[in-house]
Amino acid sequence: MHLEFLDDDRPRPCTVEQTGTAWTVTLAEGEPWTVLSCDDGAVDLLVDGRRGRAWVARRDGERLVFLDGHVHVFRLAGAADDDADEVIVAGGPLVTADMPGKVVKVLVSVGDEVAIGTPLLILEAMKMEAEIPAPLAGRIVAIMVEQGRTVGQGELLLEIEPPAGEPT
Amino acid sequence: MSRPITSVLVANRGEIACRVMRTCREMGLRTVAVASEADVDAPHVRMADQMVVLGPPSPLESYLKGDAVIAAALETGADAIHPGYGFLAENAAFARACGEAGLIFIGPAPETITSMGEKTAARRIMQQAGVPVVPGEYLPAPDPAGCVDAAALAAAAEIVGYPMLVKAAYGGGGKGMRLVTDPTDLTPAVEAAVREATKAFGDGLVYLERYLERPRHVEFQIFGDAHGHAVHLGERECSIQRRHQKIIEETPSPALDPDLRARMGEAAVAAAKAVAYMGAGTVEFLLAQDGSFFFLEMNTRLQVEHPVTELVTGFDLVRAQLAVAAGEPLPWRQEDVAPRGHALECRIYAEDPARGFLPSVGRLLVYREPDGPGVRVDSGVAEGGEVTPHYDPMLAKISTHGATREEAISRMRDALRRYPVLGVTTNIEYLDAVLAEPAFAAGNTNTGFLADHLASWTPDRGDRDAALAACAVAETLTPCGHSGVVTQGGDEPSLSPWNALGRFRLNGLG
After folding, report:
1. Total number of domains in chain A
2. Confidence check on the interface: ipTM exceeds 0.85, yes or no
3. Spatial distance between the Cα atoms of B379 and B18, rounded to a whole number of angstroms
4. What would you report as the CA-atom Rg of chain A, rounded to the nearest whole angstrom?
5. CATH code at position A111
6. Min CA distance, B468 vs chain A (Å)?
7. pTM for the complete prediction?
């Protein structure tokens, strides 16, 4: 069976063949891998002649793999892109909340000129405060939240207009 | 004054609530859990014999509502309240209200909590008891807008000197704490600390303290009873801290020799006796590079890192807390304390070390704890559970015990590699990177260790091809029936968006 994953943006074609009770996985480069068993999210495979246990979970188009203390994220090729991290629209980048939380203080006003890293607002989550820095230099053109407001992950916080002529 | 305890309400959540209930269950005591509306299915609730919902998810409306907790205890017939750590654990008014309601508060007397919780009073008492202290000054209470009087702030800063720490008077765990090196940063730092302290502890009082460069953080576990006995159970080195939040603790400290241990232990017992301490407490010291040590604070509660002390002493600190609270004498004398081997604890946080340690939230799609000889996991989460932004991001603590420090470290590194957590990002890989540092192996730890050795840390790519091979086989065996490459727009309608790979077996066995 042929599958294709994305490793960051690099396409990674894989061929999976069942061989008796095990599987052989062939990638574009390197020796084929031997997978011994796959049960309830736990996948045992041979790594340099030693048995390793990976754990696999799916989250939308993402495939999350834990192996030997490391977490790997792949994307199934062709799956819908559900990342809402970087929203760029005409007029200027929008700053969004990385995580759900509460706006403790808004540190800038509409019209302010900010440099990269200028603290824009203080967001509180899990009882810790985090400053949200400006991702680019420019002028604040809109602030969508106010002090005390609870925001969800990905929610728009404010909009920065970069200086004219500079690409974003 | 001895009074048996038969039923305990645990006024906390997460791993510490589970930890306390485990000992209660072992002793045959009935347990009552309290929960916010976000936690009604949490592991601590499932462990308890009974459960009372306190209110909405916000701690101020649930776990910090002392009157609701006391009402829950009375309603369920509990005779004692164990506060765990954080929340109401160091709230003297709550401890007093428990007593007034006829309930046993499992902790020290309210007066002790007040004097040790108010850090200037604590320092004064310690100075009088002959325990050395660090220079520090207390600020007046903030006004309702969270501002502190500017003249008083300037005067206090003058006495303490830079660099200094702004700390929550009723705090702990690094919350409400700020390092200030430049006088122009002082006012915003104080305001931020006041806000965090108000939110986390219900009181915005803060104080200033001189900051020692790269000291070690060494604390002593103390225990006292109502009969005037006090002992120490040895030290814990907690120097591996990120923004004043401990992440790795161990005992014994590589920095202490028997003579220094004896002197610090005596100072810790003197501190306990100075306040007629009852129950489990911790005396924290800063240990300077020249071997001088200063009293930092006394925590009047069971510490997060108590398992390492339990592993080397063989004592159950919660069992002893319950005994002392019931009026019994301490189960051990100082000469009974004979620690064996070495123990290490790592705190597992739902946070992303590659992105400024931002807390990570979401569903635990895969969560499996490692086990084996000398491996202990204290956790308050389960696979399928949701990590929410309402509470502390600590998911679990993993502790290992070995005959030597090397063995404890090697067990920990193996256990971290067998600790799959998928769905939220954790610091597991980062913790392993700390343990892999030659300076850690050499025991050269101080509170600047992470800044010195891990500031440029980035996640290791690991064996990506092996991971991809595993992923590919799992993908061919998904329970929803689709196989091969999913076409554009063809996502999986039969799967919930937050779904771990379901149960399936190979070769027709299942």
Report:
1. 2
2. no
3. 7
4. 22
5. 2.40.50.100
6. 8
7. 0.78
